Amino acid sequence: MNDNDTTVAELRRMFAExxxxxxxxxxxxxxxxxxxxxxxxxxxxEHFQWVRSDQLGEVREDPKQLAAIREELADVAAFVxxxxxxxxxxxxxxxxxxMAKNAQKYPAxxxxxxxxx
Length: 117
Fold this sequence. Notes:
With about 120 residues, the protein is mostly helical. The protein contains six helices and no strands.
């Protein structure tokens, strides 16, 4: 599987099947899943806690660190998918809607190369 040939729907189904086979739906309410997203995101952040920006290249080149970061990112993504399943939110349309709002809020001609107006 890779990003180029796997749909969000396929990922959602894969995670839903994983959860169903273990009868974990009973634990996957929106509050627990939102908490899990935050917890896993914090675990991802730990890998960068004391890393300076000029050291990020070293992190990317370290196979052991990259593997651990990859796993934490997968955990975050898995819980995002489970949350979307629980709340019946279409991720693609939610992202598209948010990007349209962002484009209005941050027009490229005004914010090109900067984050403040």
